[in-house]
Amino acid sequence: MDKGESLYQPLPGSTSVKLGPKAVKDFVNEFIRPTSDVSKVMDQMRPVYVDRSNTFIKEEDKKEIKKKIKNKKDGKLTAREKRRLKLYDIPKDAHQYRLFEPLAELWQGYMDKLLLQGTANFEQKLIKADFHGARFTVIQSTNPSYVGSSGIVVQETLSVFKIITRDNKLKRKNLNEYH
């Protein structure tokens, strides 16, 4: 390449001046075999859209991408993303009973308020109550190794309680194994 030669070359034909479907048809006509029909080629072409990151997207994928963008706009993570980011895991350095004692005191106040509301329908209130911070002792279980273990509930899900014991051990108790 000579020093005076331009690095940028114009597109073949004078398509930069033309606009509209006829210009596209003329442009395509310059690149296909002379034996091919331009109208057939144009009919077989699919529209392509450009998303925000300037990558090419086929028309079929447009709906899926709109859905993903909408979810990202909400700022909400899916359950799978939360597990992958380990948001539900309690770090090892936080496996200390003393760190959760204030939570247990707060839970005691929460239960006192529930009792002050009256004992009518208390069983229903207890079933729906939040148990984070509750002091638990397992008195009956299908797994005999669970019986007698006690501690503060640090995490509660539909089927699992995670309990921190006085000796700073995090134990996972499956609710399906209790009577």
User: What is the residue-mean pLDDT, rounded to a whole number?
Assistant: 77
SSE arrangement, N to C: HHEEHHHHEEEE
Largest β-sheet summary: 4 strands, antiparallel
CATH topology call of the domain at 92-177:
SH3 type barrels
| Poorly predicted parts | none
Beta content comes to 5-15%
Kindly, what is the distance between the CA atoms of the first and last residues, rounded to a whole number of angstroms? 84 Å
Q: Label the overall shape.
A: elongated
Rg from Cα: 33 Å
Q: What's the CATH C level of the domain at 92-177?
A: Mainly Beta
Examine the secondary-structure arrangement and name the CATH architecture of the domain at 92-177.
Roll
**Helix tally?**
6
Portion in helices:
25-40%
Strand order of the largest sheet: 3-4-5-6
Q: How many strand units?
A: 6
